[in-house]
Amino acid sequence: MTKAEDLVADIEALEEKLAAAKTSITSRFIGQERVVDLTLSALLCGGHALLIGLPGLGKTRLVETLSTVMGLNGNRVQFTPDLMPSDILGSEVLETGSDGSRAFKFIEGPIFCQLLMADEINRASPRTQSALLQAMQEKVVTVAGETRSLDAPFHVLATQNPIEQEGTYPLPEAQLDRFLVQIDVPYPTRDTEKDILLATTGTEEAQSTQVFDGESLIAAQHLLRRMPVGDAVVEMILDLVRAFRPDDPAASDKVKEVVAWGPGPRAAQALMLTVRARALLQGRLAPSPEDVLDMARPVLVHRMALSFSARARGEDLGALIDEIAAGMARTEAAA
């Protein structure tokens, strides 16, 4: 077989495995296919995800199910205002040996895992939030002057409550940019809620089964990066990202008016990866322009900011992204 044929066979095998993983996840996390797809996309891309939704919508259940299905060693940290960086990273303690000798020993924190759930991440102080910056970007932590590698693969799935803002600390721009995607977890539809009621209030609940493990997930991440991306898709990614930078000539008057600052190169990198993941999850061998338009909002919305006057008028970033993306789609169709 040629290299191209090998790549096609590998992609098709991975697509079957992903379909089995998705079936296992949705047996416990019912109905929210969009949320599941975006979360799986983040893991396939080797990135992190920020899940935003009201209490009781199943965010914790989703992360626990993912840990089982993807075969990852997971830990959960409940972020609170009094949480310290050492509570996440670990710390050195002074130990006395049986011979009376004394030496420092490093006690690993919960971040030394493969899937970290950072629950209500915006309730911790900026000092504690910043403890995750190095870990999320470089997959290492530095404690007491020594750099220690984290487990591979390493992913952070953080949750945030959009309405309880009292006693919270908004995530800084550098922290938000570390998240590959922002995933909005909406209320379920009536039919979905009925299915949830029937599935979770009986004597038995569906159990998820392991489909991946750490090594196979890493292999999938490497395979995803080998997927071909056409020139049209690459150009569309660049056009879309640059269209939201107020000082770029490609930006519209609306963007210049309402956007304070736009997405950087990391946003284009994230789009390049996530469009491949979406194609994989839909059983295709290469991404299309439709994938770019679909992933625009979750990839870009947390990498931009409205101007003060736009916030005062109640402008919505998500709606702006959808509007610009739709206009780009019409232009592409006309061409």
Automatic annotation (TrEMBL):
Domain AAA+ ATPase: 45-189
InterPro entries, per database record: AAA+_ATPase, ATPase_AAA-3, CbbQ/NirQ/NorQ/GpvN, ChlI/MoxR_AAA_lid, P-loop_NTPase
Gene3D superfamilies: Magnesium chelatase subunit I, C-Terminal domain, P-loop containing nucleotide triphosphate hydrolases
Any one Pfam family match given in the protein's UniProt record, by short name: AAA_lid_2
UniProt-listed SMART domains: AAA (SM00382)
Database matches in PANTHER family: MAGNESIUM-CHELATASE SUBUNIT CHLD, MOXR FAMILY PROTEIN
Protein name: MoxR family ATPase
